[in-house]
């Protein structure tokens, strides 16, 4: 129910116990280790960056290996990992695992290697396929592509553009070099784009022939081989067969490791744990044989830890209260089960600093109430509470962060159901719509689902007043919280002038409003107060205003400026009350929007009337329309509940700025190493 | 039954669905571009980026809500009701707050959303705060919705 008291812990021990001590702290998960400054030459800091990066690398290897095995064995990764959470594992099991970790790391590295080989083989196969593709037109060439001739003849192997016949080529050549007579052209293959050929000429005419050939666009094959094309093709095919065999072999070996996935996960966790420990080592200062550790620990576990450390190891431990003005000290809030989930909302704003109270309990109750009021539909609430409730029952190991979120929406769902009954909204007016359209109920018959209190559509002003009243209560509690903080910090002037007076201004005015004709005009009724009550109210408010005028500018020594600041202070407080209270009208607007849009969807669904087609249309429109409305309004309710808490409520008193508590612990991904860890 | 009254009331219905719809379409479009950019860098941010993209989408829904309420009130969705010229004009007037505030607030809310998307892409731990900035703009759309809605509820009972 509060911000926990923290203790400062200092520990001096022998270096030989360092590993065990850190492991103990890691297992307890209750100490945030501070970065200790080096104060003299005796002590120095260790640089563990190299070891840490090795652990991180090994963790990545393990992760990668598991992914590879998943991929090749076509196993499905278990879905909803965030809901399932981590599998429990005892410390003994973990120790046992440590014995074979090198073996597993070796396997993981081996799997990574196998995968790399597979990738290489695959690249090889596609490369050789491309080569064969280029070779196909040359298959019938009786000599290698690089063949240049015999003693007496010169041979040119290459291609010409376009689809040509032997005669056409000779004609082209004759035009280029009329003197060239002894030339033999043989076509190997033709396609629309090019003609592949070889030409033979006597050595003496080689130069001339080459020139002539060049002139008509002759080019040599780009990736020529010195083997016979047929032979080369065979070699390429053999190479591919070999590569495929290699892939099969590697895949087989990877698949054989299908049962190692768990081990890889354990290895990844283990490596991350060690990296975390080494990160802690870097914060210690160490001499040759000793080391010093400083940190923060919640008071409720400090004594026990103190005793445990001193009993187990040869060390000196000192724990003492961390003091409220210690800016380095982290904040831990602890709350009861009902409002505990809303700690995530608080954390998303800011944790309280150590001089103020934890607003979670009040914030939480109002959060649920306002969320429900804005979402206000029994059907939607049932869906929300049903799904989240099911998840909570089914996935008991859920990660604590997720669990809090799911619990938050469970309670929001319950609250939504409650307000849905109060204001009679069951998927809008689906019960009446169905009864009237499909079950022959008279169109003007009274509703089947009377509201517990009243129907917002019949008296929206009444609901508006109710919402504003919630606002007044919420804001007043905000001022009370401010008062408590003032008392804690012994700020009497702040308590009187910044807390009591602003509240004391409001209530007499509210009382007068309840007795006024304006109120009667809206609500049809009013409080009948005797005239002197009005006078007293006015007097109280007047005195309060005077007090604020005198004291709101108390920091300024100049009386004129002080007076002006005071007047501005009055304006601020009155305008603040007005705008803050009116802001709660969103509860009405969003609440009505949910119900009305839902009813509109139902109405749209009945456009085809009764009958078979009517039913089909209704079911379709109902499903799609309600889903849409659910989505839009759950978003609205969430965002605006946050807003009312953060802006209106926290604006009254909350400073925040507390540091998040990050104890040395076991932050693993797959396995939760269980023992008497007192996680806070 | 005055035909001009019906005409003005339907004009109001058109305003209420037109302008906030346009505003939300522009707004969700602008915010969507930023959200897509963030998702390119880090696909795991999709869900939260989507929430921020959708924030300027509510104005369109509010407009639709007022349009439907007006249509029900003037008897377009069920039994016919008597509608004088003055009443028709009153209905149109009731539609105007959400029509205009919806249009403009959606666009400005989208700009705040874009900034918030950038904020949380750089500081993913600050999602809660990034949600608040666009929500501040929405306040005014909600106030307009409130006035439109309260006016709509009171018009049928008026003796005009």
Written overview of the protein:
- Chain A is α+β, with helices and mostly antiparallel strands and 680 residues long.
- Among the domains of chain A are: 146-220, Alpha-Beta Plaits (2-Layer Sandwich); 352-655, no CATH class.
- Chain A contains 22 helices and 14 strands.
- Chain A has helices at residues 18-28, 49-73, 81-84, 91-99, 101-135, 166-176, 206-215, 229-256, 261-281, 299-312, 343-349, 360-375, 378-394, 400-422, 430-438, 460-488, 492-514, 517-523, 531-551, 559-583, 585-605, 611-653; strands at residues 2-3, 6-14, 32-33, 87-90, 153-161, 184-190, 194-202, 285-286, 290-298, 315-321, 330-331, 333-334, 659-660, 671-674.
- In chain A, helix 16 runs antiparallel to helix 21.
- Chain A is extended and about 135 Å long.
- Chain B is mainly alpha-helical and 160 residues long.
- Helix content of chain B is 81%, strand content 0%.
- Chain B contains five helices and no strands.
- Chain B has helices spanning 3-41, 46-54, 58-73, 85-122, 127-154.
- Chain B is elongated and about 60 Å long.
- At the A-B interface, helix 11, helix 16, helix 21 and helix 22 of A face helix 3 and helix 5 of B.
């Amino acid at each position: 129910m509060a911000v926990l008291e923290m203790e400062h812990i200092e520990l001096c021990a022998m270096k030989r116990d360092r590993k065990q001590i850190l492991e103990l702290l890691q297992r307890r998960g209750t100490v945030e280790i501070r970065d200790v400054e080096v104060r003299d030459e005796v002590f120095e800091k260790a640089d563990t960056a190299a070891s840490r990066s090795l652990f991180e690398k090994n963790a990545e290897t393990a992760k990668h290996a598991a992914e590879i095995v998943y991929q090749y064995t076509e196993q499905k990764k278990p879905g909803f990992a965030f809901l399932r959470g981590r599998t429990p594992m005892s410390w003994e099991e973990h120790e046992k695992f440590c014995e074979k970790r090198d073996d597993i790391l070796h396997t993981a590295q081996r799997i990574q290697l196998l995968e790399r080989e597979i990738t290489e083989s695959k690249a090889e196969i596609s490369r050789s396929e491309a080569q064969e593709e280029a070779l196909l037109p040359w298959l019938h060439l009786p000599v290698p592509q690089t063949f240049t001739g015999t003693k007496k003849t010169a041979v040119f192997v290459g291609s010409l553009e376009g689809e040509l016949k032997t005669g056409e080529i000779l004609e082209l050549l004759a035009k280029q070099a009329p003197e060239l007579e002894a030339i033999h052209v043989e076509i190997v293959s033709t396609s629309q784009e090019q003609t592949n050929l070889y030409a033979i000429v006597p050595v003496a005419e080689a130069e001339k022939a080459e020139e002539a050939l060049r002139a008509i666009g002759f080019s040599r094959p780009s990736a020529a081989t010195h083997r016979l094309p047929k032979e080369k093709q065979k070699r390429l095919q053999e190479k591919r067969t070999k590569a495929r065999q290699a892939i099969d072999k590697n895949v087989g070996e990877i698949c054989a490791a299908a049962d190692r996935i768990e081990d890889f996960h354990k290895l990844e966790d283990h490596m991350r744990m060690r990296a975390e420990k080494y990160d802690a080592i870097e914060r210690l200062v160490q001499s040759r044989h000793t080391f010093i550790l400083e940190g923060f620990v919640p008071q409720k576990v400090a004594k026990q830890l103190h005793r445990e450390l001193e009993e187990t190891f040869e060390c000196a431990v000192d724990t003492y209260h961390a003091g409220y003005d210690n800016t380095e000290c982290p904040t831990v809030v602890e709350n009861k089960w009902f409002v505990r989930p809303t700690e995530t909302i608080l954390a998303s704003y800011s944790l309280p600093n150590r001089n103020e109270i934890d607003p979670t309990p009040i914030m939480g109750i109002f959060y649920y109430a306002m969320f429900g009021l804005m979402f206000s539909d029994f059907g939607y609430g049932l869906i929300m509470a049903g799904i989240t409730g099911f998840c909570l029952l089914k996935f008991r190991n859920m990660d604590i962060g997720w669990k809090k979120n799911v619990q938050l929406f469970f309670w929001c769902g319950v609250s939504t159901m409650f307000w849905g009954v109060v204001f009679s909204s069951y998927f809008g007016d689906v019960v009446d719509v169905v009864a009237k359209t499909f079950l022959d109920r008279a169109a003007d018959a009274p509703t089947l689902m009377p509201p517990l209190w009243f129907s917002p559509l019949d008296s929206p002003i009444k609901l508006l007043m109710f919402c504003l009243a919630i606002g007044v209560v919420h804001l007043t509690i905000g001022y009370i919280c401010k008062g408590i903080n003032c008392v804690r910090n012994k700020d009497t002037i702040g308590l009187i002038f910044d807390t009591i007076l602003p509240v004391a201004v409001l209530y007499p005015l509210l009382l007068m409003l309840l007795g006024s004709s304006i109120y009667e005009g809206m609500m049809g009724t009013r409080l009948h107060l005797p005239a002197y009550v009005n006078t007293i109210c006015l007097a109280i408010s007047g005195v309060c205003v005077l007090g604020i005028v005198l004291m709101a500018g108390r920091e300024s020594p100049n009386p004129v400026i002080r007076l002006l600041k005071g007047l501005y202070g009055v304006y601020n407080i009155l305008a603040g009350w007005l705008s803050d209270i009116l802001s709660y009208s969103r509860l009405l607007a969003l609440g009505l929007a949910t119900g009305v849009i839902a009813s509109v969807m139902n109405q749209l669904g009945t456009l085809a009337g009764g009958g078979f087609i009517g039913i089909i249309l209704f079911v379709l429109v109902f499903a799609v329309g309600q889903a849409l409305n659910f989505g839009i309004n759950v978003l609205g309710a969430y965002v605006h509940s946050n807003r009312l808490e953060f802006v209106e409520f926290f604006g009254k008193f909350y400073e925040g700025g507390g540091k998040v508590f990050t104890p040395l612990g076991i932050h693993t991904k797959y396995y939760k190493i269980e023992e008497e860890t007192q996680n806070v | 039954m005055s035909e001009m009254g019906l005409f003005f009331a339907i004009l109001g219905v058109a305003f209420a669905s037109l302008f906030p719809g346009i505003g939300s379409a522009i707004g969700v479009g602008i915010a969507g571009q930023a959200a897509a950019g963030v998702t390119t860098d880090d696909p795991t941010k999709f869900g939260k980026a989507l929430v921020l993209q959708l924030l300027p989408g509510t104005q369109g829904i509010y407009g639709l809500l007022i349009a439907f309420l007006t249509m029900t009130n003037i008897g377009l969705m069920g039994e016919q009701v008597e509608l004088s010229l003055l009443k028709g004009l009153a209905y149109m007037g009731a539609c105007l707050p959400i029509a205009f505030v919806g249009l403009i607030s959606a666009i400005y809310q989208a700009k705040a959303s874009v900034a918030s998307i950038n904020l949380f892409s750089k500081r993913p731990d600050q999602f809660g705060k990034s949600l608040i900035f666009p929500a501040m703009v929405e306040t005014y759309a909600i106030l307009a919705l409130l006035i439109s809605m309260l006016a709509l509820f009171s018009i049928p009972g008026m003796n005009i």
